[in-house]
């Protein structure tokens, strides 16, 4: 066991505070990672505040992890000391079910093991990236290409793959019209990636406050959802809409913007249930879908794609002592566009 410093929430809704945690000894197939940067995801806030249900405390959040390998187990073949690596939202799965076997471990039929707020196969709680080090099985570690700086790469381990996966699956590319709902931590990555894929990209945001940013990030068009004319002008326009908003939305209004056979894919995770009139999907043979991160293989594919196209997150680097303030600013939409903790400050 190794004792490392970390920032943890001692109880639900409590401020995070500096503490120490125990990391397991490096096993035969484990990789010890010196964490350099950890992104702050809105999911961290949902879980610290038990917005998604009962949680495990003390909780060390963080599933956007970038660092350097400092030790490997005797059976490790994929990594060596000094490698630049990342860890995303999961650190294990059953490895035997049909979803795991086809590289979609995030949909493990027995339940994936989250990087934090979960119980590992050893029966111990998992602790995330707001810490100095982490030990992870090599099969759940990905390589960060040399073309990506570790600080801007960290948010790709959640925000990047969460948006890349539905864009890839629903064939965003040349000739396709894609709308991104919300220009935040997830939304700004969706815009960058969809643009790089060759799609015509529109941002749908509550106001035009971030319009200049959206266009610089790669959007071709930018519209305010608070303006009723938006829904009149854009009715039947899009092949794909990716909603990144973690608050209840008028899904009927959004579905009206799709072409026949279009898809509205939700990657935001509101705490409250939504209401939907099914005629919104029946009329137009439309699809309302969801998507959750990506498997390890697809996550590596996403990182390689981002390196090839020079895509990193837009970040604000902070010290660990600023994490509680950062949480409040995320809730106030006062970040452009992802807070990243410099873990050297822990």
Describe the protein in words.
With 346 residues, the chain is an alpha/beta fold. It has two domains: 2-157 and 313-345, Quinone Oxidoreductase, Chain A, domain 1 (Alpha-Beta Complex), CATH 3.90.180.10; 160-290, Rossmann fold (3-Layer(aba) Sandwich), CATH 3.40.50. It is built from eleven helices and 17 strands. Strands 3, 4, 5, 8, 9, 16 and 17 form a seven-stranded mixed sheet that branches. A six-stranded parallel sheet has the order 12-11-10-13-14-15, with helices on one face. A two-stranded antiparallel ribbon has the order 1-2.
CATH architecture label name of the largest domain? Alpha-Beta Complex
The secondary-structure element order is EEEHEEEHEEEHHEHEHEHEHEHEHEHE
Provide the gyration radius in Å.
20 Å
Helix content: 10-25%
Instruction: Please outline the major beta sheet.
Output: 7 strands, mixed
The DSSP helix count reads: 11
CATH fold name of the largest domain: Quinone Oxidoreductase, Chain A, domain 1
User: Structurally, how many domains make up the residues?
Assistant: 2
Instruction: State the separation between the terminal residues, measured CA to CA.
Output: 19 Å
Shape: globular
Structural class: alpha/beta
Taken as a percent bin, the fraction of beta residues is: 25-35%
Mean pLDDT metric: 96
- Return residue spans where pLDDT drops below 50 for at least 5 consecutive residues: none
CATH class of the largest domain: Alpha Beta
Question: At the fourth CATH level, what is the homologous superfamily of the largest domain?
Answer: Medium-chain alcohol dehydrogenases, catalytic domain
- Total number of strands: 17
GO molecular function, one term: alcohol dehydrogenase (NADP+) activity
Protein name: alcohol dehydrogenase (NADP(+))
Catalytic activity: a primary alcohol + NADP(+) = an aldehyde + NADPH + H(+)
Keywords: Metal-binding, Oxidoreductase, Zinc
């Amino acid at each position: 066991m190794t004792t490392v410093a970390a920032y943890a929430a001692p109880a639900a809704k409590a401020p995070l505070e500096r503490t120490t945690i125990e990391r397991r000894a490096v096993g035969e197939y484990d990789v010890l990672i010196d964490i350099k940067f950890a992104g702050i995801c809105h999911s961290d806030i949902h879980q610290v505040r038990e917005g998604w249900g009962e949680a495990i405390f003390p909780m060390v959040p963080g599933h956007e992890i970038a660092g350097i390998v400092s030790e490997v187990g005797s059976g490790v073949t994929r990594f060596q000391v000094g490698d630049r690596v990342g860890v995303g939202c999961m650190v294990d799965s059953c490895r035997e079910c049909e979803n795991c076997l086809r590289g979609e471990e995030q949909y493990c039929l027995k339940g994936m093991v989250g990087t934090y707020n979960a119980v590992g196969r050893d029966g111990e709680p998992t602790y995330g990236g707001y810490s100095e080090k982490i030990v992870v099985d090599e099969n759940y570690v990905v390589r960060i290409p040399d073309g990506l700086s570790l600080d801007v790469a960290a948010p790709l381990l959640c925000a990047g793959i969460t948006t890349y996966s539905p864009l890839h699956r629903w064939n965003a590319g040349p000739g396709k019209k894609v709308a991104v709902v919300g220009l935040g931590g997830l939304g700004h990555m969706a815009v960058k990636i969809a643009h790089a894929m060759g799609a015509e990209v529109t941002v749908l945001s509550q106001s035009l406050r971030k319009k200049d940013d959206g266009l610089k990030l790669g959007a071709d068009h930018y519209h305010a959802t608070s303006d009723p004319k938006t829904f009149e002008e854009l009715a039947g326009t899009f092949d794909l809409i990716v909603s990144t908003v973690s608050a209840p939305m008028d899904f009927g209004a959004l579905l009206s913007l799709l072409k026949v056979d279009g898809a509205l894919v939700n990657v935001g995770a509101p705490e409250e249930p939504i209401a939907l009139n099914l005629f919104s999907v029946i009329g137009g043979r439309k699809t309302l879908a969801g998507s959750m991160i990506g498997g390890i293989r697809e996550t590596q594919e996403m990182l390689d794609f981002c390196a090839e196209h020079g895509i990193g997150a837009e970040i604000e680097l902070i010290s660990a002592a600023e994490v509680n303030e950062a949480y409040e600013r995320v809730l106030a939409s006062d970040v452009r566009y992802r807070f990243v903790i410099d873990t050297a400050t822990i």
